[in-house]
Amino acid sequence: MFKNNLKVAWRNLLKGKVFNLINIAGLSVAVACCILLFLTVDYEFSYDHFHQDLKDIYQVYTTENRSSGIEKNTSMPEPLAPALKAAYPAIKFVSRYGNGQAAVRYKDKQTNYGIKFIDPDFLQIFTFPLAKGNIKTALQDLHGLVITENVAHAVFNQENPVGKTLELNFNGELQNFTVSGVAKDFPDNSSLGFDMLMRFENFPNYEQKMDRWNAGNHSLFVRLQPGIDQASLEKQFIPFTSQHFTESINTIKRDGSIPDASGNVFTLNLLPFAQNHFAANFFGLEGNQVSKVYIIALMAIGIFILLIASINFINLNVARAFTRAREVGVRKTLGAGQWTLIIQFWTETVLVCLVALVAGLLISSLILPGFRTNFRSPVTLGLLLQPAHLSAFFTIFFLVTIVAGFYPAWLMLRYKTVQVLKGTVNTAKPGKVRNVLLVTQFTLSTLLIICTLITWQQMRYMQNKPLGYNRTEVISVPLGREMKGSKAMQLLRDKLQSRSEIVAISGSANNLGLGTDGSTSTHIVGFNYNGREIRTNWQRVDYDYLKTLDMKLLEGRVFSRSFSTDSNSIIINEQMAKQLGGKNLIGKFVTIYDGYPKMQVIGIIRDFNFRSLRDEIEPLSLNMENKSDISYAFIRVKPVNLLSSYDNLKKQWHQIFPNTEFNGSWLNENTERQYRSEKRLSNIFISGATIAILISCIGLLAMAMMTMVQRTKEVGIRKVLGSSVMQIVVLLSQDFIKLVLLASVLAFPVAWLIMNKWLQSFAYRIEISWWIFGLATMIALVIAVATVSFQAVKAALANPVKSLRSE
């Protein structure tokens, strides 16, 4: 029986070659796209799931209910970790996590590596297994060092690193550290990454800050005892915060606050580490955060693509149902039962879907290398072999074959045998179903067109918006840790300032954008001024900072070598000036740290976006407080021969610092790198949306072909009665145009709600304009008309004599 059904199915597929090829083409492309999209979604949701006790791991953050709004901050004070562990038995392990860099020297090799300053519990909290060494003892020594396998291979080649001594320079002086462990290289889907781990006691200025509860400079992670409830523990933190954060709480209350439902203005909270990858609204999180909206959007596109391809399949089978009605009538006359016919038609559906599945797998394997390269996605088809993925994959396949095969079969079985054989089958109801499916299909397509246009517009806006500084002619170079920043800057100036292509040279403790070293940091200080707290971003800069970055000075003067007191001076931005009162600020003094000299305001600059466009411009104070804090050099070159200037700078760098790698990058590259996650996922989104629209076009073309076949005699009669080609084309196209317009109207409110919510995640964003919806409708109409008109013109130009002779 099965063999017979298979033979008949194969013969029927060969009879309808054109429509079956269209079906297979649409389904195979849909399968290939869905595989890549769903694997990407699964990869994003898999972040950090390799940690064995993930459900018990949390990151500590503070919530401050200020009058200006709620602030969530993950930057913690240094005494908090030991105090928490001592006070709460529910906390099994706790570790601080600070960022740093070091110049590493071993024999004749020297290079720069990133350091994470941690407590010994770190390797008990997270699953970073050691290839060599013991987790429990690797960091017991204050001068012990854990390195990754990648670093071990680069520094030691085939030598056993354990027990070897490395010279590290990260505090302005050389220190010896002994390698006590080698960590296995961690997977790509890890929010935390490191080259080297060392004890937190080596963190810069550790001793001075161990009694300060109002200054945060690192992240804090905890692993709770099994079964501990997060909400209950957070309530237990309330008396702890009242005891240790009294100064911060009193300051918030003094300056105005909006207490939470429990009456608290300052709380310690726990963020489940499993949510870290998607927690884009927290300040100072470690890792590569993305908005969950992107991931859900990719999943939705995958579902849309599959749904559109399935609608194509159903519509074509429904359209062919009328042409196969007599076949069904004859079979029923010869005694075929309903289930026999259903199984026969379902066999044909399964056969088409199997061919499309194999073709889709082949297509996805062919385009996977390009997909991985262009979208920086590390997915592999091997992920499909996981049991959960296989079961989901075959469940979707089974549902598609059931839905796409059962309805057309059921529709044909409803035809009365006598009517079928007489040729009087009524197709009104199937036409309604076809229209509903087409409207659904083009609603999804129009929705994707609108979302694609808005996404593209927002990405262009972010890339092209003026940031308040010159980013096309300025090169940012990490100075490394081979020597103090002030000394490195002086060497650069002595060597480069006489070169004709150099306009200006300066430096800063913080980079602008995200440089090639991947490091980013922000230092915020708070102080009292006229009876209220002032909070400002605190950034150490060097001479000629404004000139190098081409910034606008509104009042006062810049830092100058002619004034020896400039080490106790600050230049502020407009937002900071507003906090200080806004008028007559030049010459005013502020006390930043108790016991330190007062800082004098000597200049006010125009606001500039020193952080990404996701965030509003905040108060900023530029200072020259500590010359050794300079970590990045900024070199501005003339706007001619930029590539040549970059190459020349690289050559000069290697002459000045022969042992330090050159990691320079243009500031416009740095700013674009800030949005690499959004850009990567947006490109996938746009590509997926384009493919979904193309599949819709394939289905519409097939429907147009089938419609023309069914209306062959009508077209012939109209031509005989004098209708022109244009009239016939308009007649045959107008039904499809009405459906597209209806689909557009249905798509508008849904698209606006989705994209408006997405845009809210950006502090600087476009406004959704009415013309985007008009343009999307025009695109959908052009696509539909171009697709349908091709077949309509062909039908209108056909010889009416042949049309009227056809049966």
UniProtKB/TrEMBL annotation:
TM segments? 21-41, 293-318, 339-368, 388-415, 436-456, 684-709, 736-755, 770-793
Coarse class of the primary localization is membrane
Q: Name one GO molecular function term.
A: transmembrane transporter activity
Keyword Transmembrane included in the entry's annotation? yes
Write down the InterPro entries for this protein, in alphabetical order: ABC3_permease_C, MacB_PCD, Macrolide_Exporter_MacB
The cellular location(s) given in this protein's UniProt record come to: Cell membrane
Domain of life, source organism? Bacteria
Supply the alphabetized keyword list: Cell membrane, Membrane, Transmembrane, Transmembrane helix
Q: Where is the ABC3 transporter permease C-terminal domain?
A: 300-415, 688-796
- Any idea where the MacB-like periplasmic core domain is? 21-237, 528-608
This protein's GO CC annotations: plasma membrane
| Name of the protein | FtsX-like permease family protein
